[in-house]
Amino acid sequence: MDGIASSATAVLLGFIAAHTQHIRLGSGGIMLPNHAPLVVAEQFGTLATLYPNRFELGLGRAPGTDQLTMRALRRGRQETEEQFPQDVLEILQYFKAPQPHQKIIATPGQNTHVPVWLLGSSLFSAQLAAKLGLPYSFASHFAPRMLGQAIQLYRDNFVPSEYLDQPYVSMGVPTVVATTDAEAQYLATSSYQRILNLIRGHSLKLKAPIESTQGLANSAEQLSIQNFFAMAQIGNTQTVKAGLEKIAAHYEVDEFIFTCDIYDTQKRLDNFSLLMQIKNNSAMFLHSKHC
Question: How much is the pTM?
Answer without folding.
Answer: 0.90
